[in-house]
Amino acid sequence: MTLTAPPEYIVSALKRVAAEGHECFLVGGCVRDAVMNRQIHDWDFATSATPAEIARLFPKTLMTGERFGTVTVVLPECSVEITTFRTEGVYSDGRHPSEVEFLSSVCEDLSRRDFTINAMAKSADGEIIDPFDGKRDINSRIIRCVGSPNIRFSEDALRMFRAFRFRAQLGFEIDGETERAIYSNAGMASRISSERVRIELEKTLLSKQPEIAAEMINAGLLDRFLVLAEYAEIPAVICVNKSDLAVCEMFEPYAKTGYTIVYTSALDDTGLKDLRNIMAGRLNVFAGPSGVGKSSLINALSPGLGLETGGLSTKLGRGKHTTRHTEIFMLGASAEDGYCVDTPGFTSLDVAEIHKNELAQLFPEFRELTAECKFGNCLHVKETGCAVKDSVGGKVHPLRYDGYLKIIELCR
Known about the structure:
Elements: H1 8-18, E1 24-27, H2 29-35, E2 44-47, H3 51-57, E3 61-65, E4 70-74, E5 79-84, E6 86-88, E7 100-102, H4 106-110, E8 121-122, E9 128-129, H5 134-140, E10 142-143, H6 149-155, H7 158-170, E11 173-174, H8 176-184, H9 194-205, H10 213-217, H11 221-231, E12 237-240, H12 252-255, E13 260-263, H13 272-279, E14 283-286, H14 294-301, E15 312-313, E16 318-319, E17 327-330, E18 339-342, H15 356-359, H16 367-370, H17 387-390, H18 398-408
Helix pairs in contact: 7-9
């Protein structure tokens, strides 16, 4: 296997650290891309040296993340991040560890990383350290978590979106256990700031397979929410807020099922008239993950309310002034204009109370088809003569059917 060689100034920096008796390796995406002979944009180092020791070795450094062991070294050719080998404590905010412990072992450091393809290290002399078979998974074109997927996603829920992004960029498939964990942990997505999600979404849309962005939506939250609304017999309208940043084609599977979709933007009043007409004379609930702009949209619908909104908190990793409690507001001057309930972003959506035999009736496009199935107790998964399965790609959109298969595993 031919590897992309690092430039001489990168090798020189590795050797400079090693000359002082420290271990130092290239790690992460640059090693993955070297193994795949892809163009490398960023070079990340991991070392047994402490941040203070690194700062003494190079004439210009920035302590950009000293608490987490990271120093930015400014070389004449570029800047590189050098991070001390570490293990991490509990991720109390779903993104940052509450504490880190510096280590002397590169293998222990690699064990905390997201996917096996990103958990390799390369020394200055070209040796590849690969304790989790990242090269094997590259050859098999598989995206697999390091260790337990549930643990990796609980540490940082953005990793679920990164799995889809790597799939789109690299043309790989997501390992079965990793994919099941994404759907099981989809509720954690509400802990991620909208800005971080937007970055992953944009990278996916700019890949060779932008259609995979639709699978981020289909990772469970929207489908589960619609299933629960159907179960409770509550009419649901899909409101795509901030549609100036959205790709409307991603919601095509839902438009074809009969759900009303309104594309809005609080920035330029797009879609607000249509939304007001839908909400008039009704009690309406805005529900969705934190940071999607529910309060901003309510302000646009009824400017006199003046609900607090704000930018992103770098400390908390979510929108500032995020709604913390449920409030009901009148939209306009009278009840005829309707009422609106602003809710906190949900953190999970549990469908365990729904029986497997009930689920198909909660997918509107399945209902008429179920009567045509060969078996009366058909679950529309593996059975022969299933009208629902036979309609996938026609009356049933493949992404909706895929969502059904993921949800049925969570039902009783």
